[in-house]
Amino acid sequence: MEPYRGYRGGGGGAEDAWRLLAPLFPWIVAALLGAWLVSGLTYTVAPYEQAVVLRFGKYLATTTPGLHFKLPLADQVIKVSVEERSIRLPSGFVSARSPEPSYRGRPANITMEAGSADSEEDTLMLTGDLNTASVEWTVQWKVSDPDQYIRRFPADQGDVFAEDLLATAARTVMNRLVGDYSFDEVIGPKRNDIAVAARGDTQRILDAYASGITVTALQLQRVVPPERVKPAFDKVNASIQEKQKLENEAEATRNKLIPAARAAKDKLIREAEGFASRRKAEANGEIEALLARFRAYERAPELTRERLYLEAMQDVLDNVKDKIILDSDLKQILPLMNLDANGAGGSATIPNSPTTSSRGGAR
Q1: pLDDT of 11-52, one tens digit each?
Q2: To 10 degrees, the CA torsion angle through 186, 190, 196, 201?
Q3: How buried is 243 (Cβ within 10 angstroms: 0-12 exposed, 13-18 middle, 19+ buried)?
Q4: Which residues contact 310 (CB under 8 A, 6 or more apart)?
Q5: Hey, is 186 helix, strand or coil?
Q6: Distances (CA, A) of 337 to 26, 314, 352, 357
Q7: Is the distance from CB of 104 to CB of 79 less than 8 angstroms?
Q8: In the chain, where does DSSP find H-type helix?
Q9: For residues 86 and 159, what is the distance between their CA atoms, to the nearest angstrom?
């Protein structure tokens, strides 16, 4: 009988311990529930994130990085990365941080690198002049409205669907814009215009879908001819460069010769003007001299006539080499005075010859 009582005594001790702990069980459960509720009162938003708070499924607020409070069970917090991301089109990309598709937890300074290149056919686009160009570009984007973003895309794969939408919109816009210009314009002067227009049109499509995405930049990376026509294009490009070189040289020569020609023209004009002024002054002087003689002739006609005669004879005799002076009063034998430079300066006589003179003459 004793061993039996001992067994009963051991079982009674366990029951007694359970009876002692049973009143504490509700308190333990309440403590665990309270700890869980307290831990659900706060949440933390990373520096590269924003959080959308839903209260009973209805939008309540968008919170910025830091520590925040919420109502347990009533509030749902969905965190969205708002850092800037990049996608290379049309070939796609991989993350420089890790090959995982998710962006959560990626630092803001991580960039995107181009993934494996697709075949050239994926990058070909038809231009306005019915040529083809290989076009690749980069789109930088970020989430600007987290509320719209989580409502448009599922929380578990929102980034993947967002990239699909962005890539589709960007490729549609780029194909249309490239088709509006010729090949030479696409690779040359209209390149920046196409990039600016593509960014604006892509943003309008995203806004129409209420995606909550903002395109921050769009840059054309490669705009080149297809490989099969690249040699011919290089030759054309070389000829264009040679043409521009010759045009530049011709322009430089033109800029050098035109000022010299203008200077020569101005010089000739000044010389002609000076010659005209000089001739005009000389003509005016001759006119004044003639007028002075005319006025002198009016005052003393005989004296003026004699003076003019003497002046005329002086001009004539200055041009005569051999001069013979005759006395007009002699009738038969004429005395001759040799005025040659080589003569002796004596006189000679010549046979009588008829002479005519006026006031004494020279012959």
Answers
A1: 556 676 677 777 777 777 777 776 666 667 888 899 999 999
A2: -60
A3: exposed
A4: none
A5: helix
A6: 175, 19, 15, 17
A7: yes
A8: 2-21, 25-39, 146-152, 158-178, 183-187, 191-208, 230-299, 301-318
A9: 12
Give tens-digit pLDDT for 62-78.
999 998 888 887 888 89
Which of 51, 48, 53 has its CA nearest to residue 108? Answer: 48
Q: What is the β-pairing status of strands 324-325 and 112-114?
A: unpaired
Q: Tell me the C-alpha to C-alpha distance, in Å, between residue 116 and each of 55, 124, 136, 200.
A: 44, 17, 13, 28
User: How far is CA 62 from its chain centroid?
Assistant: 42
Do 131 and 109 form a contact (C-beta atoms < 8 A)?
no
- Identity at 18, one-letter amino acid code: W
Angle at 197 between CA 191 and CA 200, to 5 degrees: 145
Which phi and psi (to 5°) does residue 311 adopt? -65, -40
Pairing verdict, β 93-95 and 58-63: unpaired
- Contact status, residue 149 vs residue 166, Cβ threshold 8 Å: no
Among 29-33, 72-76, 244-248, 352-356, the minimum mean pLDDT is found in: 352-356
pTM more than 0.85: no
